[in-house]
Structures
1.
Amino acid sequence: MTRHFDIIILGGGIAGAAMALALAPAAADHGLNIALIDADNLDPVPIQTDGAVFDPRVCALTEASRNLLNNLGVWSSVEALRVSPYQGMEVWDANGTGRIAFSAAELGIPWLGHIVENSIIRRALLERLAETSVHRLGGVEVRELSMKKGTSFSRPQAQLHLWDQSILTAGLIIAADGASSQARRWAGIPMREWDYPHHAIVTTVELEKPHENTAWQIFLDTGPLAFLPLPSSDDNRHFCSIVWSLVPDKARRAMALDDEQFRQELAVAIEYNFGEIVTVAKRYCYPLRQRHARQYHRNGVVLIGDAAHTIHPLAGQGANLGLLDVACLAENILQACSRGEDFASDRILNRYQRGREGHNLAMAATMEGLQRLFSSDHLVLRWLRNAGLNLTDNIPLIKQEIVDQVIGVRCDPLKLSHSPCL
Ligand SMILES: Cc1cc2nc3c(=O)[nH]c(=O)nc-3n(C[C@H](O)[C@H](O)[C@H](O)COP(=O)(O)OP(=O)(O)OC[C@H]3O[C@@H](n4cnc5c(N)ncnc54)[C@H](O)[C@@H]3O)c2cc1C
């Protein structure tokens, strides 16, 4: 069986689900036949949010991402499920005196960002998507992608071969199938990639003392350790999601510890900032790799989110970059539709690449630089980073610049807050 769509979005994670929703106006106003497909279920399954159980994967969402989710009509659902706005951020070097602190009150803003569980963002997007005319094909695993030759009147067409032998064709495939994207490989898009010298352990911990609605990050010899504030429970228990980046053999060792030993080592690593670590949930470990596609589109396949780039999670920017890809690509496709242009043309897809590549590369370079600066035990570099943190902490203009980048208000070209198409 063969089915044809104008656009297929492959992968219904945060980037793919947001993309599908951002393109819903093209289905409603221009009659485009759009499908979102994923090997996983795409039904908005209920999530229990009244207890002390959290998704181990969370995102520190920037204001730009919050604006986008708001424009897509899902922020109120995300908020109703569970979010944790944070008003402070503290970063310090375990090897010295360097420390920098950011406070929303000092900057005259209500928050610096929001910590949100990945499953909550995805659920809110899928719930809203179910109200649109975008087709959701869940439980559908793509086995291969091939190209059907074009004629003098038509472009080549991408064909997705599914495990059940059926075929889906589309004028444009938006690959949102994650870091190990097969669509990227099938389309022949080369990558620039290398391993970071870290694996990240993520889990939820309960703290003896409150986190003060602050995101904490300490740079240790072995890598950065972040404590991201989660909502306290009704009985006043305090929780954080942690991202502990460690050199691989130390990460393997930490994963092998029993809970009691892990809690003790974690409390020492964070310098007993929150007293004892009371409980720890199941731990997950992710090898970290920097990836960046050398081209964002080829052969009718265009990349967004982790399929296009992955970076070190030390500044929590991966999903935020993916959402900016969504805003930029959707804006270009919707504009092309409203002008009656070919939305899958090289001109439109090049415009998307130009809109996003520089920013994604700059963020990757910053993460690489920070990771190297804080991994080095060279005396001069150690002195420089400590002096740099303290100096920056005392210069309001530089601090404001960092906050603009971290909380993501610098996205004027994408006009996220007043985009006509979102
Ligand atoms: C430890 C850690 C901490 C992080 N913290 C932050 C943070 O604080 N802030 C932040 O912004 N980002 C953070 N990130 C990054 C963020 O989690 C990712 O950038 C984001 O989740 C990627 O979303 P995505 O939709 O691009 O890909 P994915 O979430 O990987 O989604 C890909 C989807 O494609 C589907 N798929 C794949 N192949 C196929 C196939 N062949 N057929 C059908 N379906 C397929 C999969 O089932 C999946 O649903 C962190 C990352 C890590 C590792």
2.
Amino acid sequence: MADLENKATENVAGKFYVDMEECIACDACIAEAEDYFVMSDEGYAYVKIQPTDDEGVELCESAMDACPVDAIGDDGE
Ligand code: SF4
């Protein structure tokens, strides 16, 4: 489960974020929601833009569901 304490600094502020300790760089979130997730050079994904409409939120939630290690959180701020 994603831990806000391990939120990668690259994540833009907002609800969704990637826990850099949990992420295994599998690219699944980017395949689901490439407008919102991107891979860093350090080997973990991060949220590059927060969704601003229902469609975007659904894509980010699909990315959460697709993540095999539950590295994406939705309790960010
Ligand atoms: S789906 Fe999860 S483990 Fe895979 S790159 Fe995205 S955050 Fe990392």
